[in-house]
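User: Hi! I'm working on a homework problem where we have to compare a predicted structure to a textbook description. Could you give me the structure for the chain below?
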Amino acid sequence: MTVNEKIERTYNALKKDLGWTVDKRVTLSLAGYYVTLEREFNEKRYNEISTHIKKSAGMFSPLRSHLHPLFVSTLDVSDMEVKQAVDLLIEKAEALKAASFKMNSYAYLAALMMSNDKENWPGEIKHAEQLMADMKKHHRFLTSTDDYPYAMFLGQLEGDTALRAETMNRYYKELKGHKFYAGNELQWMSQVITYTNPTYEESLIQRAVIIRDGFKSVKIKTSMPQYPIIGFMAALKLEEDQLNEIVTTYESIASMKLFSWYKESALPIAFGLSLRTSKDIYATAAISMATSLKLILQAQQAMMISTIAATSVAASSSNN
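Assistant: Happy to help. Predicted structure tokens:
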């Protein structure tokens, strides 16, 4: 079965279960998520997780929001027992609440980024808080709760948080000078460029510009929602053949009838599929990103981060 056939089969299974109430772009992202991680969609397990979340979460909990399918899918691929997976996520969120994180969708997305070892939580939360504080020194108004997931994810990486925040700010300013538009998306892009190194690297700016312009030349959208995924490609220092493979994969997926009106949703899937076989832990890292309308921007961010976490763990295990 080809990748495109797997995507269509998984999409149809998800659509049958989710119905028409879920934005098609979210369903497409979820289908790409399962295929990239080489997981079969199990309707029975998915519904068990969904039911347990609804029983455990309050009526107005973010876990019941439009991101509900995303939370279910992320827990689904964890391979943990259903009750344990749901209860652990809620416990992580409670730990964030105790640390004065505002309880919204972003806090729960940040909870997804936390390790399963409770002993690590105090340190992870402290580092995320510190990174948020350091980012606010440079971008007081841009830095808000929507940065929680990235702060939790990047805060767990090696390197001084103040240095990383300073580097982010420098990337932000220089990218603006290369006609990347200011705003939240550029802030997220400047954050993910520090993924592989908290220290400033001038060459990454040029890489980002080359990738953007290269995509434009083959008519792949490079508007603001695509900024973070371009940042990841720059940070991973993808070679020309890897970028060409992403373009080829994108064109194949975007030609599917499913993506007729949602071609922007094909790029993050192509990114993940093109990199998943790489031996490099970083090159196996990414799938979904903010590549469509702001309605589902946060959902696609979370998909990107959760896939990085999942594939990185898998790569680490296979190398041990």
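For your comparison, note the following. The CA atoms of residues 62 and 105 lie 5 Å apart. Residues 279-295 have pLDDT under 50 and may be disordered. Good luck with the assignment!
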